[in-house]
Amino acid sequence: MKQIRVLGIVGSPRKGGNTDIITDEILKGAKEKGARTEKVLLNDLTIKPCDGCNVCFKTGECKHKDDFITLKDKLNDSEVWIIGTPVYWWGPTAILKAFIDRWYEYELKRQFFHGKRVILVIASGGSGESYSRHIIGMIEDITQYLGIHLEEKIVCTGVSRRGDVKNKPEVLKKALEVGRRLSS
Ligand SMILES: Cc1cc2nc3c(=O)[nH]c(=O)nc-3n(C[C@H](O)[C@H](O)[C@H](O)COP(=O)(O)O)c2cc1C
Fold it and tell me: What are the chain's domains?
């Protein structure tokens, strides 16, 4: 059986935060089943915002020469992307949005996205999934538009402080199971 490659992309600036912990748990489950796993913390990288200059449409490449270049290789080299973000003002973090905006470079080369599978991870301080609804809607629309399969959503509500998710065993159990299922 072909080994699947799973890339965790953490859009929280908080290392060891709730998004990070849930992502680790998915990766742990995936690794147990033989997947090759890797994680990137977007906040450790320099990803400049898209300028909308459309240079990429003309030359095939973004004019920004930053860490998105190496990240593109990792994205290309993985079948499953775990996309994680906390809710910041009813939306994703700025770094996660900057990362997604840079996908614009592939607007004319959609085959980059074909066959990719996404697991969405969201952590919110507020209880109730309504805080996450815009992020869910955004990711649903983007994945549908680009032909990416949105496979699972893990929404962890009512977690405010770093590591609060450790008090939510049901969320961590789901994350581990989602990770284990990726290879089946
Ligand atoms: C700038 C900022 C804005 C936030 N806005 C919201 C919000 O709109 N709704 C909400 O439920 N939680 C909000 N939160 C709380 C975070 O979503 C929550 O603390 C989450 O657990 C952080 O995840 P992390 O540990 O992965 O960073 C906000 C936190 C920050 C720092």
Answer: 5-181 (3.40.50.360)
Ligand 1, atom 31: closest residue by C-alpha: 88
How close is the Cα of 43 to the center of ligand 1, in Å? 15
Which candidate, 11, 8, 179, 5, places its Cα nearest to that of 101?
11
CA torsion sign for 184, 3, 118, 161 is positive
* Nearest residue (CA) to ligand 1, atom 1: 88
Instruction: Going residue by residue through the chain, which has 184 residues, state the pLDDT in tens, using 9 for 90 and above.
Output: 689 999 999 999 999 999 999 999 999 999 999 999 999 999 999 999 999 999 999 999 999 999 999 999 999 999 999 999 999 999 999 999 999 999 999 988 999 999 999 999 999 999 999 999 999 999 999 999 999 999 999 999 999 999 999 999 999 999 999 999 999 8
93 lines ligand 1 (CB under 6 A): no
Give me ligand 1 centre to Cα 5, in Å: 29
Dist CA 128 CA 140 (whole Å):
19
Closest residue by CA, ligand 1 atom 20:
124
